[in-house]
Amino acid sequence: MNLSIECPDCGGTGLYHGFMEKPGEYVVCVDCKGTGQKIISYKPFTKRNPRSGVDSVVVRSGDSGARSQRFSYDEFLEKIK
Question: b vs e for 44-63, b when ≥16 Cβ sit within 10 Å of the residue's Cβ?
Fold first, then answer.
């Protein structure tokens, strides 16, 4: 699906002013080509996709990962329903 959004680089003006432009000088926004809008494409989430080749799933607690739990893929799918 496509969605039209306000260009985040120029704020929807179609004109960009950065550190290289002189005061009062603007350039045509490269991101939206001066239109003020950007078209983004995305795929809506409808369901979790299966993954093949999974031997185990590890859930880590904290940054160090010292405490972790290991599950089979089937156990993981059961736990997250």
Answer: eeeeeeeeeeeeebeeeeee
Report d(CA 59, CA 75) in Å as an integer: 12
> Are 1 and 14 contacting, i.e. CB atoms less than 8 angstroms apart?
no
Whole-number Å distance between alpha carbons of 53 and 71: 14
Instruction: Give 10-residue mean pLDDT values along the chain (81 residues).
Output: 96 96 96 97 94 92 73 91 78
Counting beta carbons within 10 angstroms of the beta carbon of residue 29, is it exposed (0 to 12), middle (13 to 18) or buried (19 or more)?
Answer: buried
Q: Which of 53, 59, 57 is nearest to 77 (CA)?
A: 57
Residue position matching structure tokens 């002189």 = 22
Cut 0.90: pTM above it: no
